Amino acid sequence: MTDITPVSRKLAWSRVMTLAAAAFIFNTTEYIPVGLLSNIGDSFGMPSSQVGIMLTVYAWIVALTSLPMMLMTSSMNRRHLLIGIFTLFTASHVLSFFAWNFNVLLISRVGVALAHALFWSITASLVFNLAPPGRQARALSLLATATALASVLGLPLGRLIGQVFSWRSTFMAIGMGAFALLWLIVKMMPDFTSASTGSAKSLPALLRRPALVGIYALTVVAVTAHFTAFTYIESFTLKVGGFDESFATVLLFVLGSAGVIGSIIFSKYAEMWISGLITGALFTLSVCLLLLYPFAFSHLGMIVLSLLWGASFMIIGMGMQMKVLKLASDATDVAMAIASGIINIGIGAGALLGNRISSDMTISAVGYVGGALAGLAFIGAVLLFRKSGNNAVEAGTTITEL
Q1: Segment-wise mean pLDDT, segments of 10 residues, the chain, 402 residues
Q2: Is residue 200 helix, strand or coil?
Q3: What is the pTM of this model?
Q4: CA–CA separation, 107 and 94 (whole Å)
Q5: CA 104, CA 8: separation in Å to the nearest integer?
Q6: Which residues touch 289 (CB under 8 Å, ≥6 apart)?
Q7: 32-58 pLDDT, tens per residue?
Q8: Residue 383: which residues within 8 A CB-CB, separation 6 or more?
Q9: Torsions phi, psi for 236 (to 5 deg)
Q10: Which residue in 216, 221, 224, 218 sits closest to 347, CA to CA?
Q11: What distance lies between CA 3 and its chain's CA centroid?
C-alpha cells in the first residue's frame, strides 16, 4: 500500500471493522439462497432443485473473475474501487427485491457475484494495511471471525426474515446494510493505491509447485463435497427428515456456530499440527456426510452431525488457505486470488452436482455422494502431506473466505 496517512488508532480500527462488517455481508449473501430455496422456488413455481442453480452461477462467476479483476485493478485507488464495489452490490440487491421472474433474479445475482469477486481479491491486504501498527494479525482475525459469523448469524437471520416476511425482504435488508457500509466507506476510507504482491508473471512459477497445486486440488474436491449436501440441506431436512421449518433454521444456526468452534480449535492447534488437523477434518467431513441419511430422522442425530460437519469444514477451509500462504509467500495476492477462484469452483460444482442428484436420483443421496468425495480428499491429503512432510505454517495467519 502507498499513500496512507497515519491516523488515530480509533479511526484505524473503525476502518478495519467496516471491512469486517462488509465481509460478513458478502458471505451472508453468497449463502443466503441455501436457506431460502423453497421460498424462492414457490414464488416462481419452480422446484428447489432448479433454484439451486443460483449458487452455481454465482460461484462460477466469482471463480472465473477473481484473478483477472484483481490483476486489472491492482493500480486503482482503493477508496474509489470500494465505492464502486458497494454501489454495484447495493443496486444488485435492490434488483433482487424487484425481480419479476427467475431470470431477472439470476441477473441480479451476477452483479452481486462480480462485486464479491473483486471485494475478496483485495480485502485481506486492505485490512492488513489499514490496521494500527503491530495489530495486523488481530485485524486479520477479525476478518476471519466476521466470515464465520455470516453462517452463525447471517444465514439463519436472513432465513428468518424470509420466513416472516418474504425472501425479497431478505435481499432488500442485505442491500440496505451494504448501503450503510457504502456511506461509512465514503466517510472514513482514505485515498490510496496498492502494490499487489505478485503479478500475472507469477502464475507459471506458482503452478510449477506440486505441493501448492496439490492443495488447490484438495480444496476444490473438499468444497465440492461439502456443497453437494449443504446447498440442499434445507430441502433435505424438510423433505427427507420430515422436520418443520423452524428446525431447518435451527440446523443452519448449528452449522454456522460449529464453524466458530472449528476456528477456535484451529487457532489453538494449527501452528504445530496443521496437516494433521486438515486430514482429520476431511475424515470427519466424510463420515458426517455419509451418515446424513441414516441420521436424517433424528433431531439429536442431525444436530450432532451438524456440529461436527460445520467445525470440520471450517478447519479445512482455514487450513487450506494457510497452506497456500505458506507455499506462495512470494506471491500471496495472486495465490489467494487463485484460491478464492478454486473455492468458488467447488461451491458451484457442489451446487450443480447436488442439483443433478436431487433431480435425477433422490435428494436423500446427496450425503452419500458428498461423503464419497470427501473420502477421496482425505486419501489425497494423507498422500500429499506424507510426501511433502511440510507441517509448518505461517504464525498469525488466519485469513478465511467460507
Answers
A1: 61 87 89 82 82 81 83 79 93 93 92 90 75 69 74 79 89 94 88 61 74 90 92 83 80 80 77 85 95 89 91 85 74 75 84 83 88 94 76 38 36
A2: coil
A3: 0.73
A4: 12
A5: 45
A6: 225, 226, 228, 229, 309, 367, 368, 370, 371, 374
A7: 887 788 888 888 888 877 787 887 788
A8: none
A9: -60, -45
A10: 224
A11: 31
Rg (CA), the chain: 20
Whether the Cβ atoms of residue 350 and residue 228 lie closer than 8 Å to each other: yes
Tell me 2's DSSP state.
Answer: B
The C-alpha cell that represents 130 in the structure block: 489499514
> How many whole angstroms separate alpha carbon 168 and alpha carbon 389?
50
Q: Are 128 and 139 in contact (CB under 8 A)?
A: yes
Q: Residue 196: what pLDDT?
A: 47
Q: How far is CA 284 from CA 88, 306, 371, in A?
A: 39, 11, 10
Task: State the cell numbers at 116.
Answer: 464479491
Question: What gap in Å lies between CA 238 and CA 277, rounded to an integer?
Answer: 33
Helix axes 136-149, 9-44, angle to 10 degrees: 20
Q: Which helix (H) or strand (E) holds 88?
A: helix 78-98
> How far is it, in rounded angstroms, from Cα 96 to Cα 171?
6
Q: What is the distance between the alpha carbons of residues 145 and 399, in angstroms, rounded to a whole number?
A: 9
Query: What are residue 193's phi and psi, to 5 degrees?
Result: -115, 170
Q: Are 151 and 313 spatial neighbours (Cβ–Cβ below 8 Å)?
A: no
C-alpha cell belonging to residue 60: 462460477
Residue with cell string 490510496? 192
**Three cell numbers at 45?**
413455481
Place of cell 428468518: 160
**Which residue(s) pair with 2 in the sheet?**
193
Cα separation, 242 vs 159, whole angstroms: 18
Lookup: cell for 356: 443433478
Q: How many CA atoms lie within 13 A of 310 on its CB side?
A: 24
